[in-house]
Every structure is written in structure tokens, then in C-alpha cells.
């Protein structure tokens, strides 16, 4: 039998991914307004529980606005990309990046979210960032909404629960499409759109304690995001004819815990509930299997006349996913569980786990890519994957992060196998190419980057950037188009 050798295509994008709220800082500079991320408190690991990981209460908001709170809000500071973007992009270019995913901070363009006129200083900032990327021939992949719902929309409508937010989002999208039509071709509407059903404040600026039926609010807000994404896709194709709109899913792949058919059907249901989001985005309609889910959870999606037609007429052009782990499904909740935040699961005895309890499953990435391409037959872009870990700075300043290299190598190898299987894969963007504030825990010590940023969990440090061993490894991986790993 002939030995088959999988290879990445020549036009494959290599790079990294970030979010404005985790890197920019400058939360009160250049006319920027407050966003959901600006209210996320840092909670030390020994005080953290599942209940306070990312959700915000009305009382926390009140204390933050009144000045009563003594909490730290690390996402207000980020890593000061706002002032360091030239230095940071130069480092990405040194690694050989051909693509860089970033988000536009909605509240930097429309400080309240519902403003009629955009903030010119905010628009100019991204003009400058895109100019710097072009200087190095790095393709920007731009997310419109990455957990950055303007607080003004939370205050006025309780975030995406209010249908009015659709029009404000489309106005925002049209504004940036028009401004950057010659600078950005690839867009993503909502980062990990399934997050609004897991953490509604993070994913949609929704304060749950204001809602009588939290589940209803989550899925109603999600419906508004679906419609907004489709309308933004329509605008994109009108303003940038060769522009491409992608959706974004946090892929939470489930295996049955045992061959017991009860576990198999549970895994099937769990996978359906995760793929529901891409089903709507790509196929343009709600799948029938969600009818039962909505009935059993007392959810009734309120649609306006024409919503179904909007979804069907304006599907996305490509799919983007984040992939960090796989999970187990069981008809019985008993058994040892992982510690992974938000994505807690039964422990898989065949897998290792990160220091934060996230189960490491490279082969699972190949499974996911094959299953999703079989399901949709549209291009897939890997726009998040990486290892959060503690890094030690040696006396000479070096950082030997062999564990990160090992993690990325194994995932890239499996991604290459998926390409060999026939998956149309556009590129690979490692999460957090430069250390940033953790989305889920607001820590700095949970580091993902190839580039180290001198800042600790308490906000202390010089912000000096330095190269880890993985920086040089990834540079070689990119130079060889994934052949030298």
C-alpha cells in the first residue's frame, strides 16, 4: 500500500488570535465607552468557584459604577496593546505570521453602543493597527463582537435580550465595513456565539438576575444575535463584494463515556446542542432537534416577521472554531470530573489535562474537523487553539516552554491529518500568541503566548515583551508550512 503523506496547502494561513478586551487596555482613552469585559473582576484562584467565574450581578455593576468596589478589573488594562501595537505586530511579523485575528472593540467605535455617530478616535486607532499589519503583509481576521458588548446596551436593553440591539449592531458593522473595506476581507460576526447560553453576561451583556426566566433570556438573546449576524453578512456582501463572513463556535466535542446506548444517546444530544449554533449559521434555519430542547426547558423563541427568511437568505461563508478539549457524556452524573471552568466534564482516563483541568485531546481535533466538514461542506478556519500554562522565567530571561511546543505540535499534526482526510482548512491561528488576560479567570499567570509579557495577576510588572522558546519553534513551523514541527 502506498504511504500517504498529508500536507497543508500553499495558501494556508498561519498566525495567532486575540481579543480587544484581553489585550488593548486604554479602557478610558480615545473616547472609548465601558463594555461587559470592563466589569469582570479578578478573583484569586483559591477564592474562585463555578458561581463567580464570569457572571456579573446587578449589585456588582452598581458597586463598580459607584466606586464602592475594591475589585481589580484586569481587562481594563489588558497588556496595553493600545500603546504597544507597533512593537507587538513587529514581533508577530518576526515569527512569520501571515494572518492575525483581532477584534474591534465595539465600545471604542460607539461608546454606548447605541450612538448615532461613531467615535473618530476609535476608528483611527484601528486604521493605524491595520496599516501596521499591511506593512508586514499580515492578513487581518476581524471579529466584530468578542465579549465586548457596550455597557450602554446592557443598561438600556439588558444587552442582547433587547431586539433593538440588532439594529445597533448592524449600524456598527456597516460603519466598520465602510471604513475598512480596502483593509479587511475576512470577518467573524460573534466570537464563540454559544457563550451567551453558558455565560450570558460575557456573551451578550445580559445580567441574569434581571430576568425571570434566565434560559428564555439566553436563547432569545441568541436569536437576536443570529439575526444580527445574518443582516451583517448581507451588509458585508453589499459593501465589500469579495468580503467573507464567518461564524464562530466554541466546539465542545462529546464522546460517550461507555458503549452503553444511554451514554451514546446522551453524547449525541450534547453534540447536537453544541452544533445547533453552526447549523443555524450555515444552513440558515433552526434544526428540528431543538424543538424538544426548547419545550423541555420552557423556552419560546419570539421571532419577528421575516426573521426566518433573513437567516435562510444570508448564511455565513465559512466556519471558524475554537478547540481546546473534548468531553465525556454519561447518562449517569456520577464519576470523577475535570476542573475545567465552564466546560466541566467527566474525566477521560485516556487523556492528560492542563494545569487548569482542560483535557488535552489532539486526535479529537481531527475528529472534530472531519465531522464538521462532513456536516457542512464549507471551509473551516481554526482560529483558536492553545495551552494555558504557568511559565517560569529563568535567571538569564529565557523561558523554556517545551510543554506548549508539545501541545501545539500534536494539534498541528492532527490538523494536517484532517487536511489529508479532505477537510478544506483555511488556516491555523494559535490562541494568545502574546500573553494576555485570561478570558475566563482574568489571570495573567495562565499564559498562552509565544511572547512573554512582564505582568502578574495583581497588575504589577514592566510590560516588557520577550521571546519564549516556542517563539522560535513556531517561526520554523510557519517557514516550513507545518513540515518542521
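Sequence proposed for the structure above (485 residues):
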Amino acid at each position: 500500500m502506498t504511504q500517504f503523506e498529508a500536507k497543508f496547502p500553499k495558501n494556508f494561513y498561519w498566525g495567532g488570535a486575540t481579543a480587544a478586551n484581553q489585550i488593548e487596555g486604554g479602557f478610558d482613552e480615545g473616547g472609548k465607552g465601558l463594555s461587559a469585559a470592563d466589569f469582570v473582576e479578578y478573583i484569586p484562584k483559591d477564592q474562585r468557584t463555578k458561581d463567580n467565574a464570569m457572571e456579573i450581578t446587578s449589585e456588582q455593576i452598581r458597586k463598580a459604577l459607584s466606586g464602592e468596589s475594591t475589585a481589580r478589573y484586569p481587562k481594563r488594562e489588558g497588556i496595553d496593546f493600545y500603546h504597544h501595537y507597533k512593537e507587538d505586530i513587529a514581533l508577530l511579523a518576526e515569527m512569520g505570521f501571515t494572518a492575525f485575528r483581532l477584534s474591534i472593540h465595539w465600545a471604542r467605535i460607539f461608546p454606548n453602543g447605541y450612538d448615532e455617530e461613531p467615535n473618530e478616535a476609535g476608528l483611527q486607532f484601528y486604521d493605524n493597527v491595520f496599516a501596521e499589519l499591511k506593512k508586514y503583509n499580515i492578513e487581518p481576521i476581524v471579529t466584530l463582537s468578542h465579549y465586548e458588548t457596550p455597557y450602554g446596551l446592557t443598561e438600556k436593553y439588558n444587552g442582547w435580550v433587547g431586539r433593538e440591539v440588532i439594529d445597533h449592531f448592524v449600524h456598527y458593522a456597516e460603519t466598520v465595513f465602510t471604513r475598512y473595506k480596502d483593509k479587511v476581507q475576512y470577518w467573524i460576526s460573534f466570537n464563540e456565539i454559544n457563550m451567551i447560553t453558558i455565560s450570558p453576561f460575557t456573551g451578550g451583556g445580559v445580567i441574569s438576575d434581571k430576568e425571570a426566566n434566565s434560559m428564555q433570556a439566553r436563547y432569545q438573546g441568541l436569536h437576536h444575535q443570529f439575526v444580527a449576524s445574518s443582516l451583517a453578512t448581507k451588509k458585508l456582501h453589499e459593501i465589500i463584494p469579495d468580503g467573507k463572513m464567518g461564524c464562530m463556535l466554541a466546539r465542545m466535542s462529546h464522546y460517550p463515556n461507555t458503549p452503553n446506548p444511554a451514554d451514546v444517546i446522551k453524547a449525541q444530544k450534547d453534540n447536537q446542542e453544541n452544533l445547533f449554533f453552526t447549523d443555524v449559521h450555515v444552513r440558515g434555519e433552526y434544526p428540528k432537534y431543538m424543538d424538544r430542547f426548547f419545550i423541555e426547558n420552557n423556552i419560546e423563541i419570539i421571532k419577528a416577521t421575516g426573521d426566518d427568511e433573513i437567516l435562510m437568505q444570508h448564511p455565513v461563508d465559512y466556519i471558524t472554531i475554537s478547540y481546546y478539549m473534548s468531553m465525556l457524556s454519561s447518562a449517569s452524573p456520577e464519576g470523577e470530573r475535570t476542573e475545567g471552568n465552564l466546560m466541566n466534564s467527566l474525566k477521560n482516563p485516556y487523556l492528560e489535562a492542563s494545569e487548569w483541568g482542560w483535557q488535552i485531546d489532539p486526535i479529537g481535533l481531527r475528529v472534530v474537523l472531519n465531522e464538521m466538514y462532513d456536516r457542512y461542506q464549507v471551509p473551516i478556519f481554526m482560529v483558536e487553539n492553545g495551552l494555558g500554562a504557568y511559565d517560569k522565567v529563568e535567571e538569564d530571561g529565557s523561558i523554556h516552554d517545551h510543554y506548549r511546543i508539545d501541545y501545539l505540535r500534536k494539534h498541528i499534526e492532527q490538523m494536517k491529518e484532517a487536511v489529508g482526510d479532505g477537510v478544506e482548512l483555511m488556516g491555523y491561528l494559535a490562541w494568545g500568541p502574546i500573553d494576555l488576560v485570561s478570558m475566563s479567570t482574568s489571570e495573567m499567570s495562565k499564559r498562552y503566548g509565544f511572547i512573554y509579557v512582564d505582568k502578574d495577576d495583581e497588575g504589577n510588572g514592566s510590560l516588557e515583551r520577550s521571546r519564549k522558546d516556542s517563539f522560535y519553534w513556531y517561526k520554523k513551523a510557519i517557514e516550513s508550512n507545518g513540515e518542521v514541527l
